[in-house]
Amino acid sequence: MKALIATAKGLLTFDIAPNIEPEMEEVHFIGLAVNMVYVDERTNRWWAGVAHKHWGQKLHFSDDNGKTWHETAVPSFRGLVMPDGKKAKLRQIWCMQHGGVDKPDHLWLGTDPGGLFHSIDNGHSFQLVKGLWDHPSRMKEGQWFGAGSDYPFIHSIVVDSSDSNHVYVAISCAGVFETKDYGKTWAPKNKGLKATYLPTSNVEVGHDPHQLLHFKKNPKILWQQNHCGVFYSSNGGDQWEDVSVDQGYPNYGFSIAIDEEDPAKAWVIPVESDEKRIAPELSLSVFQTNNFGKTWKSVSEGLPRGFTFEIVLRQAFTKKNNIFLFGTTNGNLYYSLGEDILWKNISSHLAKVNAVYLH
């Protein structure tokens, strides 16, 4: 299986297979920060969001597994302003998702500031989804705001595997929003979430999901790692259940992975806290639940214990079949193969890992 690793200094590819030590194959965009990597499984087209220090955000795609890359137009906020009166300007390309198997040339793109863009020509052009941009909550003080950034940003897009008109996005900070008419209208889906950093924690809008995933075989099942814990929904986000641990782990963190066959199984990589963004007790750990978060156990064998300050960012942990893969802010890359989780280090000298993808 091919592993794509987006780092602060380039996009790396590895081949991961049983009984073979993974080796780095190629480096693309050497020296440049790659913040987003995505593979459209419908076409096998690779996508990379690249940040140039002088030229800003760029969007590239490859149709030959990275042998050649082509640049396409980035989304534009031209003529738009933020609630604070400043001109809206593309700051980062965060995530991409296909528009559904029945819409072969359609793509979704999430950005900082919190714009959702849509393409109907396979990424040659993108248009702002005005239904979300013009949502009344975005203009209200304290409902959409920055979390680690000056402005809110869209980092997760989930397309219902049974209905491509049904889409969720996760916004830091605002929360989870849902459309059932392919982006024309949107509604917040945050009941049961907590926003303990606000005067009132059970607000309708103002939440900070860190990553949102859904179980493809039953799209009503959603998981999220949130600023205020780990949450699960069995009814499409109508109600969220807090399945984090009050004392200990898991609780705060950025990334989450879920199983493709069993909706009750999920994995998180905890972080000490918002104030101390380090590995808890200076030990890198992965926790697993097999019962929708009723109980959690550590599955951390093979990971370094003690004096480990690194953490894992929201797009830098993934699972596909029996392969687990994550990269850290200190440039370590770990993987595990098979049913029994045993972590092995692929590389310990990369730049900060922003995102990983398996295909």
Give the overall shape, derived from the CA principal axes. globular
The main sheet comes to: 4 strands, antiparallel
Q: Separation of termini?
A: 6 Å
**pLDDT < 50 stretches:** none
Number of domains: 1
CATH architecture: 7 Propeller
Strand order of the largest sheet: 3-2-1-28
CATH topology: Methylamine Dehydrogenase, Chain H
* Mean of all residue-level pLDDT scores: 96
Radius of gyration: 19 Å
Q: Which superfamily, in CATH terms, is the homologous superfamily? A: YVTN repeat-like/Quinoprotein amine dehydrogenase
CATH class: Mainly Beta
Q: How many β strands by DSSP?
A: 28
Query: Based on helices, strands and strand pairing, what is the structural class?
Result: mainly beta
Total count of helical runs of at least 4 residues: 1
Keywords:
4-stranded antiparallel beta sheet, single chain, 28 strands, 359 residues, mainly beta, 1% helix, Methylamine Dehydrogenase, Chain H
Brief digest:
The chain has 359 residues and is mainly β. 1% of the residues lie in helices and 41% in strands. It has one helix at residues 130-133, and strands spanning 2-7, 10-17, 20-28, 33-40, 45-52, 56-62, 70-72, 92-98, 107-112, 116-119, 127-128, 153-159, 167-172, 175-179, 187-188, 209-214, 222-226, 229-233, 241-242, 253-258, 266-270, 287-289, 297-298, 317-320, 323-327, 333-337, 344-347, 353-358.
Structure description:
The protein is mostly beta strands. The protein has a single domain (71-346), classed as YVTN repeat-like/Quinoprotein amine dehydrogenase (Methylamine Dehydrogenase, Chain H, 7 Propeller), CATH 2.130.10.10. Helices cover 1% and strands 41% of the residues. It contains 1 helix and 28 strands. The protein has one helix at 130-133; strands spanning 2-7, 10-17, 20-28, 33-40, 45-52, 56-62, 70-72, 92-98, 107-112, 116-119, 127-128, 153-159, 167-172, 175-179, 187-188, 209-214, 222-226, 229-233, 241-242, 253-258, 266-270, 287-289, 297-298, 317-320, 323-327, 333-337, 344-347, 353-358. A 4-stranded antiparallel sheet has the order 3-2-1-28, with no helix packed on it. It has a 4-stranded antiparallel sheet with strand order 4-5-6-7, with no helix packed on it. It has a 4-stranded antiparallel sheet with strand order 8-9-10-11. It is globular. It starts with a strand and ends with a strand. The relative contact order is 0.12. The model has no long low-confidence stretch (mean pLDDT 96).
